[in-house]
Amino acid sequence: MSAIKPVRGTHDLIGEDQRRHAHVVATARRVTALYGFEEWATPIFEETGVFARSLGDTSDVVSKEMYTFTDRGGDSLTLRPEGTAAVCRALVTNGLTQSLPQKVFYTGPMFRYERPQKGRYRQFHQIGAELIGPGEPLADAEAIRMGHDVLAALGIAENVLLELNTLGDVESRAAWRAALVEYFSAFRDRLSEDSQNRLERNPLRILDSKAPEDRALLADAPVLASYLNDASRQFWDELRNALTLFGVAFTENPNIVRGLDYYSHTAFEFVTTQLGTQGTVLAGGRYDGLVAEMGGPKTPAIGWAGGIERLAMLLEAAPAVTRPVAIIPLGDAAQAVAIKALNTLRSADIRAEMAYRGNLKKRMERANRTGASHVVIIGENEVAKGVVQLRDLSSGEQVELPEVALVETLKAAGAGRQA
Ligand code: ATP
Ligand code: MG
C-alpha cells in the first residue's frame, strides 16, 4: 500500500496555523456581533441545485470547481463552494423571509476544485456576513464598513485597499453586455481559449479573467458606467456618499465583476498586494435576486465573505497561548495534594498541567519546554506543613506559601492570562 497522504489542496490546522485561524474567526464573530449579526450554521452539503441554479452555469465555480456527487439514494449533492446561496436557502426553508432584516454571520469550510497554490486551496475556510432585507445603499455601506472593521481588528486594514464597482441593474447590464460582445469579438483570436467560450456564454466573465492575454485587452473595453440607467446611476451615487458617511475610503475599479452571477449594483473587494495574485482577502456585493431564486419572495440583500487562510497569513504575529502553571509533586503523599491543586487552579481559570512521572530535574525541564510561567513544587515536607513552593520561572524567585493561598497569589502574579 502506498503511504497515506492528505488530499491535494487540503491542509491540517495544527499549532500556530490553528491559532491564527481561530483568531480570525473569533475576531470576525466579535465585530459582526457589534453590528447586530447572529451566527448561523448551515450544512456542509446541499442539493446541487442550490448552487448550480444561483451561482450561474457559466461561472467558474459551477462549470469546473464544484465537488458534486451522487449519494447512495441517487440524489445529486454538492459540497458547498460558498456560503451565500446556502444562507438564502436556509432563510426560505426556515420561513424567515417575513422576519426581515436578518443579519447573518457564518464561518466554516468551503470546497472548490481549483489548482492549489499559496492562498488557494480545495478545502478552504471563510468568514461571511449577509444583511438580508434592506435595499438601500446605506446597508451596503454599513456592511462594507463592518468588513473594514474586521480587517482593522485583525490589525491588517492598513495593508488592504477597498476596490469598488457597480454592476448596475439587469437592464443596464444587458446594454453593457452587448457592447462587450461587440468589443471582444473584434479581438476574438487574441483571447484565451476560456475567454473565447465566455464570449458566447458570459462575456462579463472575461473581465475577471486572470490570463495575461485577456488582461491586455481590458484597458480599452467598454465600461458599465457608460451604460447605467437612471436608477442604477442614482444607486451608485448614493452608495459612494454612504461610504463617505460611514468613513470608508475606497478606489473605483471598473474591472471588479466578482466570480458569481448573482450580484447586482454593488461589488467590492478588499485587496492586498502582499499575497501575489491571491490578493483578495474579503469580497462581496449586493444580490437582490438570490432569495427569489431559492423560491422566496424578491428580497434585497448584501453580503461578503473573507478567506480565512489569506487573512491568517497577513496577521502580524500568531496569537499567544496562555502560559501554564506546572505542578510538580515529589512522592506519593504529594501526588494527592498536587491533584487537588490542579483541580483548584483549573476551577479558578488558571491553565495548569502536571506530568505523571520523572524526577525534579526532568519535570523542571518539561515545565520549561511547555513555556510554564510558574512551577508549584510539593514534597513530603510541604505536605506535612500544608504549604507549597512557588517558583516564578521568569525571575527565578521562589517563595513558600500556604497551600490555600496558591490561587490568590498566582492570580495576583498574572498567571493564567494571555502572554
Ligand atoms: P478569487 O478571485 O481569488 O478566485 P473568488 O472571487 O473566487 O476569489 P469569492 O467566491 O468571492 O472568491 O470568495 C471570497 C474569498 O474567499 C476570496 O476573496 C478569498 O479570500 C477566499 N477564497 C476563494 N477561493 C479560495 C480558495 N480556493 N482558497 C482559499 N481562499 C479562497
Ligand atoms: Mg475563484
CATH fold-level topology of the largest domain: BirA Bifunctional Protein, domain 2
Radius of gyration based on Cα positions: 28 Å
Strand order of the largest sheet: 1-5-6-11-10-9-7-8
Q: List low-pLDDT spans.
A: none
- CATH first level of the largest domain: Alpha Beta
The CATH homologous superfamily of the largest domain is termed Bira Bifunctional Protein, Domain 2
Kindly name the structural category. Answer: alpha+beta
Report the β-strand fraction as a percent range. 15-25%
Summed up:
With 419 residues, this protein is α+β, with helices and mostly antiparallel strands. It has 15 helices and 16 strands. Helix 1 runs antiparallel to helix 5 and helix 5 (137-153) runs parallel beside helix 9 (230-245).
SSE layout and pairing:
Blueprint (H helix, E strand, L loop, with lengths): L15 H19 L3 E2 L5 E3 H8 L4 H6 L1 E4 L5 E4 L4 H10 L8 E10 L11 E10 L4 H17 L7 E6 L3 H16 L7 H9 L10 H4 L14 H16 L5 E2 L11 E8 L8 E7 L3 H4 L7 E7 H7 L10 E5 L2 H16 L4 E3 L5 H10 L4 E5 L1 H6 L1 E6 L5 E5 L3 H7 L7
Parallel strand pairs: 1-5, 7-8, 12-13, 12-14
Antiparallel strand pairs: 2-4, 3-4, 5-6, 6-11, 7-9, 9-10, 10-11, 14-15, 15-16
The structure holds adenosine-5'-triphosphate and magnesium ion.
Magnesium ion (MG) binds next to loops.
